[in-house]
Amino acid sequence: MAEVRVCLTDTFAALDAWFDQPADLRRYRPAAGGWTADEILEHVGLTNHFLLILVDKATRKALLNAQTQDLAAALAAYEFQTGKLADIGRHKSFAWIRPEHMEPTGTRPLAEVRAQLQQQLAHCRQTLAAMPNGEGALYRTTMSVNGLGKIDVYEYLYFLAQHGQRHLTQLSRNAAEFAHNPA
Question: Looking at residue 101, which CATH number applies to its domain?
């Protein structure tokens, strides 16, 4: 849980720093196409929104399971699947066609996107706080991205942070290209 919390905090802090970058950098579109920094940030917020719906459902079920399952036994056999989730944090490490509802429109005000990401970090922290004893390990649900299969609530939160990391790499690439081609 501590590793997930740190990863979430670091990822969201790095994303938040992008809102303070110059507007011309944030609006720069890579020469080969792709998203601007503003669009990437909007996409992360959209994706988090839908992931957190799944996290909330899984959290409720995990907490219910904690009333009837042996938490100590589950934790004794618990293995966090860090390696399985590592590819999520690497930009272009696998092919994935995102659902249309996770595509940025470029029309949301930047302040709204920033506030959404800040609220999402708070939401993630509240989720972790609601399961302080490891209850999140008691419910697993299928994640189709990159064939991950069944992951638990903590792994879903880590997935969310890794998705942000994936796009931080994309943001860094945009910045590097912009530095060489400021248009």
Answer: 1.20.120
CA angle 148, 151, 152 (to 5 degrees): 165
CB atoms within 10 A of CB 144: 8
| 15 or 87, higher pLDDT | 15
Average pLDDT over residues 70-95: 83
Tokens read off for 140:
């697993």
Are 162 and 85 in contact, with CB atoms under 8 Å apart?
yes
> 101 lies in which domain range?
2-180
Please give the pLDDT value at position 86.
Answer: 82
Total number of domains in the chain: 1
Rounded distance between C-alpha atoms, residue 132 and residue 119, angstroms: 20
pTM of the full structure: 0.91
For residue 182, pLDDT over 80 is answered with no
Spatial contact of 41 and 15, defined as CB atoms under 8 Å apart: yes
Mean pLDDT value across the chain: 91
Q: Which two tokens stand for residue 17?
A: 């720093």
Q: To 10 degrees, what angle do helices 2-17 and 153-180 make?
A: 30
User: Could you count the other beta carbons within 10 Å of the beta carbon of residue 129?
Assistant: 10
